[in-house]
Amino acid sequence: MAAVCQVTGAVPGFGHNISHSHRRTKRRFDPNIQKKTYFVPSLGRKVTLTLSVKGIKMIDARGIESVIADLQKRGVKL
Question: What are the residues facing 67 on neighbouring strands?
Fold first, then answer.
């Protein structure tokens, strides 16, 4: 599963692990991705989304209908 949020578009960041002696090795900062299922009344069915926690909070604040409408405008397949 790709570490990409369908709502916010959050993707992994890249950087370095720095040891005590300051040697640097590459590392990846993954967003906190969760799979959530929501019932969407306008579609009359459940929709499973891959979301970051920020995306989940956005759905709680704006509502699933508003977020689904934005996703459909962007052309995301649900």
Answer: none
Distance CA 30, CA 1 (A): 12
Element (H, E) at 33: strand 33-40
Report the distance separating Cα 63 and Cα 74, nearest Å. 17
Q: Give the separation between CA 48 and CA 23, rounded to whole angstroms.
A: 42
Q: Where are the alpha helices (DSSP H) in 27-63?
A: 53-62
What are the pLDDT digits (tens) for 33-45?
A: 999 999 999 999 9
DSSP-derived 3-state class of residue 50: strand
Which among 23, 45, 62 has a CA at the least distance from the CA of 70? 62
**Does the predicted TM-score (pTM) go above 0.70?**
yes
